[in-house]
Amino acid sequence: MSEPIVRAAAVENIAGRRPPESQPVLRTETGHHNTAHGHDDHGVLHHHFEDMTQQREATVLGMWAFLCTEVMMFGGLFFVYTLYRWAATQRAHDLGMIDPFYVGSQLLNHTLGLVNTFVLLASSFTMAMGVYYAQTRNRKMLMNMLVLTWLFGASFLGIKAIEWTTDWHEGLVPALNWHPEHVLTHGHHAFDVAKVNLNHLQMYFVIYFCMTGLHAIHMIIGLGVVFWFWVLAKRGLFTNGNDQPVELVGMYWHFVDIVWVFLFPLLYLIAGHHI
Amino acid sequence: MSSMEHSKVETQSADERATRDDSMDDIRPYQTAPEPEVNYLTNDYGWKSWLFTLDHKRIGLMYLVTISITFLLGGMAAAGIRGNLITPQGLLGAETYNKVFTAHGVIMVFFFLIPSIPAVLGNFLVPMMIGAKDVAFPKLNLLSWYLFVGGVLMALFALMRGSVATGWTFYAPLSSTYTDSTVVWVITGAFLAGFSSILTGLNFIVTIHKMRAPGLTWFRLPLFIWSHYATSLIQVLGTPVVAITLLLLMAENIFHVGVFDPSLGGDPVLFQHLFWFYSHPAVYIMVLPGFAVISEVITCFSRKPIFGYKFIAFSSIAIAIFGFLVWGHHLFVSSQSAYASQAFSVISFMVAIPSAIKVFNWTATLYKGSIRFTTPMLYVLGFLGLFTIGGLTGLHLAATATDVYLTDTYFVIAHFHYVMVGGTVSAYLCGIHFWWPKMTGRMYPESWGKAAAILLFIGFNVTFFPQFILGMDHMNRRYHAYAPQYQFLNVMSSAGATILAIGFALPIFYLLWSLKHGEKADANPWGATGLEWQTPSPPPLTNFERTPVVTTGPYAYSAVESERVTQQAEELAERVRERVLAEEAEREYGEKEKELV
Amino acid sequence: MAQTAHAGDNVERFGAGHAGREPQDHDQRDDHHHIVTPLTYIKIIVVLMVLLIITVLAANIEMGVLNVPIAIAIATVKAVLIMMYFMHLKYSSKLVWIFAGVAFVFVGIMFALTLSDYFTRDWLFNPGH
Fold first, then answer.
1. Which of B277, B428, B491, B566 has a C-alpha 20 to 30 A away from that of B323?
2. Yes or no, beta carbons of C62 and A273 under 8 Å apart
């Protein structure tokens, strides 16, 4: 019964005091700055929530709902992949040609792909450890974990950049620099160009670049957020009981990792025979 | 009389007294609550307090302004269409006409219908109806408005750049290979509007799950909330698919990569599958909030609890889920396999059932109710008829055999306008009028409201009913010219469109007028149930002074009725008592005077 | 502010309580202060790395049509492990489980119904196919 009055009083008392930098200074409706600090180390309670438990549960649900939208979005691309892989493989089989998707996957660098997968899994580990250190209020270790996560993520993107540059040089970028015949005949794996449907091979690479590209965009955004969180963690923002945001970013990061866990076998590890 | 009434009369301006509509006095005994010092409109001033607001009510109003503008733009495009079709040769050339109907479709679908009720009424009312102070993520809410405005600006930019002639459905390879890059701007606009929609839906889902007032269990929720929850499910799960589809289309248009281009091994039907996977559930995003409004208003003006609460609640969820299973009925003539077409056809018939259940339940709510023909109620009654026609004609199109004949004719156009305009837009206007006093603290002029509702109903039917006939006569859609035998009905349709336009334009004027001169409204001018009516009009910033605790279900109108009757009886008894006392006093005074004399 | 006796006096107004949280939204497991230990994380990451190696090895074994389902199955196991332990699903309520899983159901619908078109295209004679 007395809770809202107490909280209102708390806001009254600190009205006019400059809010800490952690709170983006948006003018709130009443002109009172949103400084409803939990005085008891439970983190920052936002004004429209009744209590911390409600806030935690709501924000976690909100992040899962957002990840639902990401699953649906990537799901569309996975479907495009599935359809065209099925169609291309069928057609090649019917006509006695080589499976273009197999050819495409052979033209990628499997070693780099595998290394990238290890790197991303490691980054998920360090991110999870970051959440642990936020929960146990270890500021230094949280910062270290965020740095490691960032480094792993950046390595991933660096390796991806190498792969893409190689693809460019080999003429494997659809529409922009597409002349695969050279690498097909002179690459590590030699293929009989006549037995490869080049349109379908191009489709493979379109899908490859769209999927890894969308994934890379998500990684870049993730790296930006992790860096920003490192800055905020340095100020002790997440090790005073307010560990929730780190958990939420962690969930996003793990999701991006899960997408790659599926992308790797589907794009790189396509089995097939030489004909 | 009592001093309270005396002071009430004094606080009224001459304007208010003159325009006061007393038709509702028996259920809404005239009174004004003393205005609270601060409501959500007056607590802060200046453009920053609006553009940086986190208040769901202000965000709802900003959406109201924005989509009124987009509705106007889409309406102008509609005028272009109907104007062109007066003569068989068409007043516009083919390319221009194609651009006009594309603009009409894109604006109306992405920038009007999809946001309309959820973004305006949903944003305003969902937290209030569940007794919360705001939505779960107010900053995301504000972001969704900015994304929406960004999308509108993109689309406007594309319009000025020369627009596109692909139809709002952007079928490949027309929109990828055979259109210039203006289409990329339009698609980006739709993409941004889509994310706006996703954020709104996400917000509602979490808000409804986690921020209900104590005692407000799921089955005590107003059906407005159930319907918006179902809408939000679709927004969150469906929109991302069209997002990625549009991205692929952009890549195709810019880079010509061949995802949908047959000459490069792609499949244009894949675009259709991915596009309609969202766009069919999208029509349920448009209509479910309409159902939400209808459920609230029909109970209020029948003074009866809703018939079959759980059926309506569950049918909303059923529509949301089943709506994801039927998109193939847009692909019957696209080389989709016969087996898939049959499956989609059967499921399309099934998805009509929950909608029908709702219509039956609303009708049963009317039965033996005490009906008040207010403006919102007129819109509701119009909705019931028009949506039913729209829904039934949908079945004509769900049956593969008849669809093969009717597809791409005016029958389809008439069908979806019956459900979208006769359905959603009617419900939207109904909701605006019903909750206008709550949002603004003012009543709109009732007779103008009724006139607009009637004009809309007449104008709508004269515009679109002939199109069913035109469609059965196989007049093709999306053609700027037509065979001369169709002219008579086309002219009738265009004439109806002018009446319809007046029906749409009128509310803009009298609603704006009411902001200054409308009668001041108290907390509950309609005598409705629901938590939103328990706070002043307009509401204070945090909606409720203290978090309400709910102990009964919604639509307790029988209780309200008996309470109102009791209260009236008491007031009458009080007046009689006063008069008797006054007469006695007079008599005594008269006798005393005689004695003195 | 004065409120006249209107519809809705069945709603009592007093102070805040735990707003709108159902008993079924909480489980034994729903403990926001449950902190997963580093040891658990280490165990999981080791399993994930091992599974990754298995993925590569399995891809090099010719299994015909089974290659794809097996690769996806292993990836799914990895994804589930990440969701359960790194994303703390194991320690969350049923409601969160539903949120986590529902999108996959709808992706499944998209796959199933769309492929039902493509897979059945030549079940009937299609001229020009």
1. B428
2. yes
As to burial, measured by CB atoms within 10 angstroms (0-12 exposed, 13-18 middle, 19+ buried), residue C53 is: exposed
Cβ(A212)–Cβ(A118) below 8 Å: no
Q: Which of C14, C22, C86, C93 to mutate to test the interface with A (most CBs of A within 10 A)?
A: C86
pLDDT in tens, B340-386: 999 999 999 999 999 999 999 999 999 988 999 999 999 999 999 99
Give A168→chain C minimum CA distance, Å.
26
3 state SS of B442: strand
C chain contacts of residue A53, beta-carbon cutoff 8 Å:
18, 21, 32
Q: Counting one residue from B and one from C, how many pairs have CB atoms under 8 Å apart?
A: 132
What is the pairing mode between strands B548-549 and C12-13?
A: antiparallel
C125 close to B (CB below 8 A):
no
Residue B136 in tokens: 């779960």
Cβ within 8 Å of residue B247, ≥6 positions away? A214, B191
Sign of the alpha-carbon dihedral angle for C82, C85, C90, C92: negative
**What's the rounded Cα separation, in Å, for the pair B80 and B86?**
10
User: How far apart (Å, rounded) are the C-alpha atoms in residues B379 and B208?
Assistant: 27
Q: Which residues, 6+ apart, have CB-to-CB distance to B491 below 8 Å?
A: B86
CB atoms within 10 A of CB A65: 25
Q: Say yes or no: C107 contacts chain A, CB-CB below 8 A.
A: yes
pLDDT band of residue A33 (cuts 50, 70, 90) is very low
Alpha-carbon separation of residue C51 from A258, B571, C70, C76 (angstroms):
13, 79, 12, 11
Scan residues 109-148 of B and list those with Cβ closer than 8 Å to A: 132-140
Separation between Cα atoms, residue A211 and residue A218, nearest integer Å: 11
Q: Smallest Cα–Cα separation from B491: which of B88, B98, B100, B99? A: B88
Partner chains of C (3+ C-beta pairs under 8 Å)? A, B
